[in-house]
Amino acid sequence: MSTSDADRWWHGGVFYQIYPRSFADTNHDGVGDLPGITAKLDYLADLGISGIWLSPVTVSPDRDWGYDVADYCGIDPGFGTLADLDTLVSEAGHRGIRILMDLVPNHTSDQHSWFVDARSGPDAAHRDWYVWAHPKPDGSPPNNWLSVFGGSAWELDEASGQYYLHNFEAQQPDLNWWSEDVRGAFDAIVRFWWDRGVSGFRIDVCNMMIKDAELRDNPPATEGDPLDQQLMGLRAVYNSDRPEAHDILQRWRTIADGYETPPLLIGETNVEQLTTLMEFYGDGRNELHGGFNFVFINANLEAEAMRRVVEDTEALLPEGAWPIWTGSNHDVSRLATRWAGGDVAKVRCALLILLTLRGTPFLYQGDEIGLTDGPIFQSDLHDAVGIRFWPYYKGRDPERTPMPWSNTPGGGFTSPGVTPWLPMGDPAACNVADQEADVDSVLAFTRRAIAGRRHSDDLAVGPYRSLPSPTGTWAYARGERTVVALNMSERAQPVEATGTIVLSTERTLEGTAVEGALTLAPWTGVVITS
Ligand code: NOJ
Fold first, then answer.
1. Model pLDDT for residues 181-215, shown as the tens digit of each residue
2. Sheet holding 499-504, edge to edge
3. Residue range 153-190, pLDDT digits in tens
4. Is 123 a catalytic residue?
5. Residues 68, 174, 204, 373: which is the catalytic one?
6. Among positive and negative, which fits the CA dihedral 284, 290, 291, 293?
7. Mean pLDDT, the chain, whole residue set
8. Greatest C-alpha distance within the chain
9. If 393 and its partner were Cys, which of 49, 179, 231, 389 is the partner (CB 3.0–4.6 Å)?
10. Rounded CA gap, 208 and 174, in Å?
11. What does residue 41 show for φ and ψ, rounded to 5 degrees?
12. β-strands 132-133, 464-467: how paired?
């Protein structure tokens, strides 16, 4: 097997991303909370997951809904208390589920005490913890860097006459990672959580953390550059993707490796090239344990496109490194909408792929029931980016709508009569309770797929190998005895295989013996063992 015993729990496991505001509300304020997550642990254990990635629950004024942190070691009162977090970690542990928190090191909130001090004047103790620069002689920003969220990446601090850098909202000032004090502060933060039993971090925009020390202008974008950079007109090479980010990640890996069970470092490696993604794995042992594969996330649900990304990823990964596969998160349209256009057969195929590739899948809350994006009108908007770019871009609220637990008032997410922070959508159309009662539901399929993976060494940790198959289909071997075959086209197609169908997007096929070949109906997938 290509994995060590110590890594087996997460290599063979499935992670589940929780967006806490939208998961389960126990204190009747229309916003999810930590006790709500703890209350759903039995559901998550039945689903069969091994770990949870918790989007930020640390103190935040919510300019960017948790991704603007005002205290890295405190729980936001809207979510509960540190004791609630401890309870979640220990109750999850009793069910064999480990918790990853979200670490946001690129920037803080402008209300963090470090920035409040930094802003108090050029001689402040924390001034150098952020990136400050003088205006150009004409008073304009120090260079041409643009914020990911639109406009200049510089905000003028009237009092001192200097600008500070923000790669995201102006209320999210970027930290200066050239500062040893910042590095030391984060060493203490990661230890704080790991000492409490948190099993690792998803690291926010870890490719952006450090900026060009000379603050050089970004060059103009050219045709081959990523679309967003072409639209902005600049190639973000000096305020992003600097090589020195790797030193910081390796520093955390060294700290992690000092723990008896090393906590995981999973990066939000939102890069366009697989070769760039691979750099975050270091030599396979000294940097991130895993990085989200945005080339895969951004691929279409097409056999050839996905197979190519998977083959390239497999070929490029350093020895011993482990892939991460995802179809949805709180920043991109949910897979049931973006990949599947609401077609349940396509949703099942997407889930089958995620749950049978070599690597750790991260499901986003609701993927397991095929939840589509929620309906968002302009008056519902909470995401600053959606507010800024409406109607050209609706922002990220559609993928953040509350989890529909049941077809009841409040959707089982919040109490009847309470208005949820974002609209529920229509819980009658898709909810957990109804799917629990239906052996043919997407939820039932997801549970079978996760259970199958847990009980099969081939699926958990066996090597991946593409197999020949007709256009529009995708077939691959996992380990010695397992073959996955998908027809991702609109017409029936034959695939070669021999053995027994142990899992299928079409439940009635399970248990069928296959001798040499099988004709798959459109948008159908099978797992066959011999
Ligand atoms: C990536 C996070 O996933 C996103 O939600 C956030 O807005 C940006 N980073 C800035 O922290």
1. 999 999 999 999 999 999 999 999 999 999 999 99
2. 464-467, 473-478, 482-487, 524-529, 499-504, 513-514
3. 999 999 999 999 999 999 999 999 999 999 999 999 99
4. no
5. 204
6. positive
7. 97
8. 77
9. 389
10. 10
11. -65, -35
12. unpaired
Q: Give the torsion through C-alpha atoms of 131, 134, 139, 143, to 10 deg.
A: -50
Among the listed residues 5, 223, 260, 515, the single catalytic one is 260
Q: Could you give the CA distance from residue 358 to residue 348 in angstroms, rounded to a whole number?
A: 18
The C-alpha atoms of residue 52 and residue 97 are separated, in whole angstroms, by: 7
pLDDT score for 6: 83
* φ/ψ (deg, to 5) at 24: -160, 125
Name which residue sits closest to atom 6 of ligand 1, judged by CA. Answer: 67
**pLDDT given for residue 301 in this prediction:** 98
The mean per-residue pLDDT over the stretch 374-383 comes to 97
62 is annotated as an active-site residue = no
pLDDT per residue over 174-184, tens digit each? Answer: 999 999 999 99
CA distance 152 to 43: 45
With a 6 Å cutoff on the Cβ, whether 64 touches ligand 1 is yes
| The two three-digit tokens of residue 479, written as one number | 């380990």
DSSP 415-455: -TTPPPSS----TTTS-HHHHHT-TTSHHHHHHHHHHHHHT
Q: Is the CB of 204 under 6 A from ligand 1?
A: yes
The two structure tokens encoding residue 443: 């939820």
Q: Whats the size of the chain, residue-wise?
A: 530
Distances (CA, A) of 141 to 116, 157, 379, 525: 21, 11, 33, 54
Dist. CA 473–CA 59, nearest whole Å: 47
- Write the pLDDT tens digit of every residue in 248-273: 999 999 999 999 999 999 999 999 99
Q: Which residue has the least CA distance to atom 10 on ligand 1?
A: 67
Question: Could you tell me the CA-to-CA distances from 360 to 107, 143, 196, 418, 453 in Å, in that order?
Answer: 28, 40, 24, 37, 11
Give rounded-to-5 percent helix, strand, coil for the chain.
30, 20, 50
Cα 225 to ligand 1 centroid, rounded to whole Å: 22
Return the structure tokens found at 324.
């991460």
CA dihedral 388, 389, 394, 399 (to 10 degrees): -60
pTM metric for this prediction: 0.98
